[in-house]
């Protein structure tokens, strides 16, 4: 849910832990990732201004929109960027002159100085290829934003696609992991268009983030399945609504999956809880067995059962379990003695039994006392 | 005098010995088949010794047999074993009541091992993984000289639990450790290593599964036990247990970290894997493996975390990484050490993922489980305590061709009392009979769309 996403970002990270990171990804089937990004941005900024969040400021790295766009966006939500006192948002401008061409041309020709526009809200970045420099600019901006050394700030990166155009995946990944492990960064979030990259790139970014929010169409269009009129209506539907699917990596190692629907309106994007189908988790368990183990209580109970013919010569009356539940009654069951050389039983008293051998082929009685087997 | 009818039957390449009924049962146990096994040679020798002690033998034949059996350095061919047995049986038939000339060899052949190492079958030596349940599952522990690979799940940090226990166990046993990780400061991770649970805390489980508490029903036979095998006087008195229970909430005492210098390497800076390989090579040269295997003084441990993490410079050079793993494995074979390498398979292309899996001697994988999944909670017992799943794909079998087939390959990872790592078999929860659902529709046997993932 968008609410819980924003709340997680607002709460930030614990001491000594990597900062939570959110990846927002979309595709051409439902291209509303930027709307979601703006939504999260405005939510977080309002939390920051209200003082409810762990971070005290926000650094926005703008690649695909100009800083003035963001200033207007935030102003429309009631957050004033340009006021110097309570300004909580700084923008690192990588949109105006990312590779420094205009800067170099300025020296040669007679282009106007462009840096005046950016000075109030942030720094102009002239070389996005150098991720180390980018990292240090972000940190510098952030530290300038939050005066104390222990306060934290958030980082929002407009579009990772633009970054990946200029720098390699490993350097971008290094930048992100450094940001996450910096002590003063409270949370990081970025936007990615998944169909612009190889699967591996998307997988790496998901690997590095603790929340993955994907914007998906309500119903997938499959080629050749429907005729044109259906397809048109489906596309139209996909342009107004979609599914918002979030995977949270929780601290205990479990994954929480949530699903919501969103609508695009004039004022922005609105979320509501999912109507129909449940979230289908990916396949998991191979073999599940029946439990053949005993719990501790069961083991104790088992060891308490008196087994037949067990050595019980402790002075207590000898009990032989005969299948009935009369164990505990302490009746004197007569012990049965093997046939052949029978002698008088305890209980029967009085009689005598005299026997004759059946044949002489039988083995003579051994010297062993047959009573040795008895438990006396 | 018993008559033994002997005969040989040559059918294709499988010679069989035809014996009198009484001897067949003993022979059957040792199953001499056409493709003899080095491991079986020992058992054949033992059989020979035991049966001859019962049935006695002439001294001349026995010594010849003895020397024949002993002189075989390689796996004997089947007919040779058959022929030796033939001689033996002929000898058995010939003579009777004489003193046995086979004497039980005192097992002086076991090498003297440092604490923390254990002898295994087929001449292998084990070292502990740090998790008692995992040692039991793997049949003793990690084999010295093997490469253990753990496939991470990018959604859960369970591989760190395995690594932490592995590294702590090494430090407790004073085994040198090399740790490589993609973070800039790997030493920071050492602060999170757990400490063994002290004896005053209750251990997670009573490890004493005393099966032979003494005979309960057949108590009469106790008087026949003369010298009993000393196996039951466990090794619990030893100060160094082979495997400790680690309390994940207590950090390892500093004395262990200082006593043994832990070599930490950061993978982030290394663009070139050959530097890392040389580093591993110099580390492993401290524990060379000799052929006679007489005594092993120290064993080493290498822990490489998240080998193909995206922030490492070499992470898109897939062939280089593969050749690194290959070279590492070959260096491991000639040293007394165990290497544990974890990697997230989702970051590799599928063909390389398969290649890497084939490289491993022991292959484990960890998986995350979804949170608050009602279906899973109904299906499994103990779902609330589970944090993840561990799958055992492959177990190292060095010096033998017989594979180890486990009853169950998926285990649940639980943290007992939030401290002790425990692996349990997955058990199905009892199906709620009171719900009135018929057997066909309840629980896992139902034909819902979700059951594709279950496998009976």
- Categorize the overall geometry of chain A: elongated
User: What's the average pLDDT of chain B?
Assistant: 73
Q: What share of the residues of chain A lie within helices?
A: 25-40%
**How many helical stretches of chain B?**
12
Shape of chain B: globular
State mean pLDDT of chain A (0 to 100 scale): 77
Number of strands of chain B: 19
Query: How many separate helices of chain A?
Result: 11
Beta content of chain A comes to 15-25%
> Which residue ranges of chain A are poorly predicted, with pLDDT under 50 across at least 5 consecutive positions?
326-348
GO biological process, one term (chain A): tRNA wobble uridine modification
InterPro entries (chain A): Elp5, P-loop_NTPase
Subcellular location (chain A): Cytoplasm; Nucleus
Pfam family, one (chain A): Elong_Iki1
Structure description:
The complex is a heterodimer of chains A (376) and B (456). Chain A is 31% helix and 19% strand. In chain A, helix 3 links the parallel strand 2 (55-62) and strand 3 (89-93). By secondary structure, chain A is α/β, with parallel strands linked by helices. Chain A has two domains: 2-281, 3-Layer(aba) Sandwich (Rossmann fold), CATH 3.40.50.300; 296-358, no CATH class. Mean pLDDT of chain A is 77; it is low at 326-348. Chain A has a ten-stranded mixed β-sheet, sandwiched between helices. Chain B has 456 residues and is α/β, with parallel strands linked by helices. Chain B has helices at 21-30, 38-55, 59-71, 78-94, 132-138, 158-172, 187-190, 254-259, 273-284, 318-333, 350-359, 374-379; strands at 7-11, 14-18, 112-113, 117-119, 125-127, 142-143, 147-151, 177-181, 194-196, 246-251, 262-266, 295-296, 300-304, 337-343, 362-370, 386-394, 410-416, 420-425, 427-428. Chain B has a nine-stranded mixed β-sheet, with helices on both faces. Chain B has a three-stranded antiparallel β-sheet with strand order 4-5-6, with no helix packed on it. The longest helix of chain B has 18 residues, at 38-55. At the A-B interface, helix 8, helix 9, strand 8, strand 9 and strand 11 of A face strand 15, strand 16 and strand 19 of B. Chain B: Residues 199-212 have a biased composition (Basic and acidic residues). Chain B: Pathway: tRNA modification; 5-methoxycarbonylmethyl-2-thiouridine-tRNA biosynthesis. Chain B: Keywords: Cytoplasm, Nucleus, tRNA processing. Chain B: Belongs to the ELP4 family. Chain B: One of its GO terms (cellular component) is transcription elongation factor complex.
């Amino acid at each position: 849910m968008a609410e819980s996403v924003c709340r997680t970002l607002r709460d930030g990270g614990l001491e000594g832990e990597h900062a939570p990171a959110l990846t927002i990804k979309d595709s051409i089937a439902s291209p509303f990732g930027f709307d979601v990004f703006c939504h999260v941005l405005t939510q977080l900024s309002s939390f920051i201004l209200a003082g409810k969040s762990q971070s005290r400021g926000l650094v926005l790295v703008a690649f695909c929109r100009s800083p003035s766009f963001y200033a207007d966006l935030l102003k429309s939500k009631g957050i004033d960027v340009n006021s110097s006192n309570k300004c909580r948002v700084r923008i690192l401008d990588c949109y105006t002159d990312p590779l420094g061409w205009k800067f170099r041309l300025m020296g040669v020709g007679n282009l106007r100085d462009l840096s005046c526009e950016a000075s109030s809200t942030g720094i102009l970045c002239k070389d996005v290829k150098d991720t180390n420099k980018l990292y240090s600019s972000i940190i510098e901006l952030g530290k300038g934003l939050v005066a104390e050394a222990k306060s934290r700030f958030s980082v929002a990166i407009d579009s990772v696609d633009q970054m990946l155009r200029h720098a390699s995946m490993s350097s971008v990944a290094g930048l992100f992991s450094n940001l996450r492990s910096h002590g003063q960064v409270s949370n990081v979030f970025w936007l990615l268009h998944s169909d612009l990259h190889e699967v591996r790139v998307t997988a790496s970014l998901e690997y590095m983030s603790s929340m993955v929010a994907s914007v998906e169409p309500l119903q997938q269009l499959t080629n050749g399945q429907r005729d044109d009129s259906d397809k048109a209506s489906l596309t139209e539907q996909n342009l107004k609504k979609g599914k918002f699917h979030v995977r949270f990596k929780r601290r205990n190692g479990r994954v929480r999956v949530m699903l919501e629907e969103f609508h695009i309106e004039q004022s922005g994007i609105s979320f509501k809880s999912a109507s129909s189908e449940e979230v289908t988790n990916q396949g998991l368990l191979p073999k599940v067995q029946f439990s053949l183990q005993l719990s501790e209580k069961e083991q104790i109970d088992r060891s308490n059962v008196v087994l037949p013919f067990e050595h019980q010569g402790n002075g207590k009356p000898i009990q032989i379990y005969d299948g009935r539940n009369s164990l505990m009654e302490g009746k004197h069951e007569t012990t049965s003695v093997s046939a052949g050389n029978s002698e008088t039983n305890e209980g029967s008293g009085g009689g005598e039994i005299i026997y004759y051998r059946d044949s002489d082929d039988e083995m003579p009685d051994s010297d062993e006392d047959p009573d040795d087997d008895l438990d006396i | 005098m018993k008559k033994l009818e002997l005969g040989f039957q040559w059918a294709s390449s499988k010679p069989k010995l035809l014996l009198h009924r009484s001897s067949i049962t003993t022979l059957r146990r040792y199953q001499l088949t056409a493709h003899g096994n080095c491991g079986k040679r020992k058992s054949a020798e033992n059989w020979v010794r035991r049966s001859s002690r019962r049935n006695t033998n002439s001294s001349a034949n026995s010594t010849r047999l003895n020397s024949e059996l002993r002189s075989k350095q390689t796996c004997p061919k089947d007919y040779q074993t058959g022929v030796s047995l033939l001689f033996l049986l002929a000898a058995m038939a010939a003579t009777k009541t004489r003193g046995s000339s086979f004497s039980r060899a005192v097992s002086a052949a076991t090498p003297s091992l440092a604490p923390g190492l254990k002898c295994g079958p087929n001449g292998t030596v084990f070292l502990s993984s740090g998790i008692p349940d995992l040692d039991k599952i793997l049949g003793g522990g990690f084999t010295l000289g093997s490469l253990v690979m753990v496939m991470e799940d990018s959604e859960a940090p369970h591989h760190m639990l395995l690594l932490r226990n592995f590294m702590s166990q090494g430090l407790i046993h004073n085994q040198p450790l090399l740790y490589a990780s993609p973070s800039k400061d790997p030493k920071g991770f050492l602060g999170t290593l757990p400490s063994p649970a002290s004896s005053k805390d209750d251990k997670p489980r009573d490890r004493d599964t005393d099966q032979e508490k003494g005979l309960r029903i057949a108590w009469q036979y106790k008087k026949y036990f003369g010298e009993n095998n000393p196996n039951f006087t466990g090794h619990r008195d030893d100060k160094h247990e082979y495997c400790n229970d680690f309390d994940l909430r207590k950090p390892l005492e500093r004395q262990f970290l200082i006593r043994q210098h832990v070599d930490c390497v950061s993978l982030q800076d290394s663009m070139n894997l050959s530097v890392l390989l040389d580093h591993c090579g110099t580390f492993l040269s401290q524990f060379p493996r000799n052929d006679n295997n007489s005594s092993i003084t120290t064993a080493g441990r290498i822990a490489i975390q998240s080998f193909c993490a995206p922030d490492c410079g070499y992470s898109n050079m897939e062939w280089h990484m593969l050749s690194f793993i290959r070279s590492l494995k070959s260096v491991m074979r000639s040293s007394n050490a165990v290497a544990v390498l974890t990697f997230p398979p989702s970051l590799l292309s599928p063909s390389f993922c398969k290649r890497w899996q084939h490289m491993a001697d022991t292959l484990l994988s960890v998986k995350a489980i979804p949170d608050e999944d009602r279906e899973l909670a109904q299906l499994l017992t103990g779902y609330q305590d589970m944090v993840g799943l561990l799958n055992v794909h492959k177990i190292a079998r060095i010096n033998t061709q017989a594979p180890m087939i486990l009853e169950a390959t998926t285990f649940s990872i639980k943290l007992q009392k939030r401290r002790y790592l425990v692996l349990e078999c997955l058990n199905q929860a009892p199906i709620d009979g009171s719900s009135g659902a018929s057997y066909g529709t309840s629980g896992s046997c139902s034909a819902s769309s979700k059951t594709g993932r279950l496998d009976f």
